[in-house]
Write a structure and sequence with these properties.
With about 325 residues, this protein is of the alpha/beta class. The protein has two domains: about 190 residues, P-loop containing nucleotide triphosphate hydrolases (Rossmann fold, 3-Layer(aba) Sandwich); about 140 residues, 2-Layer Sandwich (Hypothetical Protein Yjia, Chain: A,domain 2), CATH 3.30.1220. The protein contains 14 helices and 15 strands. The strands form three sheets. A seven-stranded parallel sheet has the order 3-2-4-1-5-6-7. Strands 10, 11, 12, 13, 14 and 15 form a six-stranded antiparallel sheet that branches. Helix 6 packs across helix 7 and helix 13 runs antiparallel to helix 14. The longest helix has 22 residues. About 15% of the residues have low confidence. This is GTP-binding protein.
């Protein structure tokens, strides 16, 4: 049985998550979807706003997605086992750092066997978004880790304000498509690294190395906030196949020593001795087991590509460490062989 995709819907308070969710749930593409809602406050209201009366809406306990609610999330997903569902949407409170949800999905063995993270969809309010990004680190993280960015209320904001916010979001997360709330469900779903039904990596859509590299060097907004300045994304590309032992050791060292600074790491790897590509995905010190994909896409140059979204960690530290561990692994093998 193929794993059930889980979409994490996040965005700061008032960004329009529930409105978007209600529209999506009326789309045939989301037939058989279970919704888990984490509402911050004494009384959960969002679950009352979700127009779904078939019993598949579960309200998680009020509060941040810390230990208590992470336990609730595990229990809720376990309780869905055996139900005829095709997809799960987790709507987070606007105050939530999405990383604990992603970690929960990847770290719980029982969940990992049945569910797969499909992607993070982050809503940003075009009217209040710039001020929110200036004031709230959580909002910056929500935007930085997104697989899809959705700009809401653009019709209520001045065109120049929308353009400035779009430029800031592209600089913060150049790999995520920037969409509007009326985007078709298909544009918001299935944004993970691979589709288990085909085992085929959608490299071109998911990872555009040139775009990441270009944005990293040329798209720093002159009015970048103190939060944005602490978070940056870039792509490392390797022409030669990488040694898995060296890479795995480096990832272990990086996540043990600086895991809190690695907001996300996604990659498609060409490894020594392997014809097929390998996908890796990590969130703040926690890594999903590597996945061997069916094949490279037609016409792909088969280079390894690693995308990093880091906070308070210099690119050179990461890049130099990776290259050093890879070289060390190669040398050890040459000496041994």
């Amino acid at each position: 049985m193929s794993a059930i995709p889980v979409t994490v819907l996040t965005g700061f308070l008032g960004a329009g998550k529930t409105t978007l969710l209600n529209r999506l749930l009326r789309d045939p593409a989301l037939a058989g979807t279970a919704v888990l809602v984490n509402e911050f406050g004494e009384i959960g209201l969002d679950h009352l706003l979700v127009e779904r009366l078939d019993g598949d809406t579960v309200l998680l306990n009020a509060g941040c997605l810390c230990c208590t609610v992470r336990g609730d999330l595990v229990r809720a997903l376990r309780d869905l086992t055996g139900r005829e569902i095709r997809r799960v949407v987790v709507e987070t409170t606007g105050l939530a750092d999405p990383a604990p949800i992603l970690q929960t999905l990847m770290a719980e063995p029982m969940l990992a066997a049945r569910y797969r993270l499909d992607g993070v969809v982050t809503l940003v309010d075009a009217v209040a978004g710039m001020a929110t990004l200036d004031a709230q680190m959580e909002a910056v993280k929500q935007a930085a880790v997104a697989d899809r960015l959705v700009l809401s209320k653009a019709d209520l904001a001045a065109p120049e304000a929308v353009a400035a916010l779009e430029a800031r979001l592209r600089a913060l997360n150049p790999g995520a498509p920037l969409l509007r709330p009326n985007a078709p469900a298909e544009a918001l779903l299935d944004c993970g690294l691979y589709d288990p039904a085909t085992k085929h990596p959608d490299v071109r859509r998911w990872l555009d190395a040139e775009a990441f590299a270009g944005h990293h060097h040329h798209h720093h907004h002159h009015d970048v906030s103190r939060h944005d300045a602490r978070i940056h994304s870039f792509c490392l590309t390797f022409d030669e196949p990488l040694p898995w032992d060296g890479l795995a050791t480096w990832i272990d060292v990086l996540t043990t020593t600086r895991g809190e600074s690695v907001l996300r790491l996604k990659g498609i790897l060409s490894l020594e001795g392997e014809e097929r590509p390998v996908a890796i995905h990590g969130v703040q010190g926690l890594f999903h087991p590597p996945v061997m994909l069916e094949r490279w896409p037609d016409g792909d140059d088969r280079r390894s590509r690693l995308v990093f979204i880091l906070r308070d960690l210099d690119r050179a530290v990461v890049e130099n460490g990776l290259r050093a561990f890879a070289e060390s692994a190669r040398r050890e093998r040459e000496v041994a062989g």
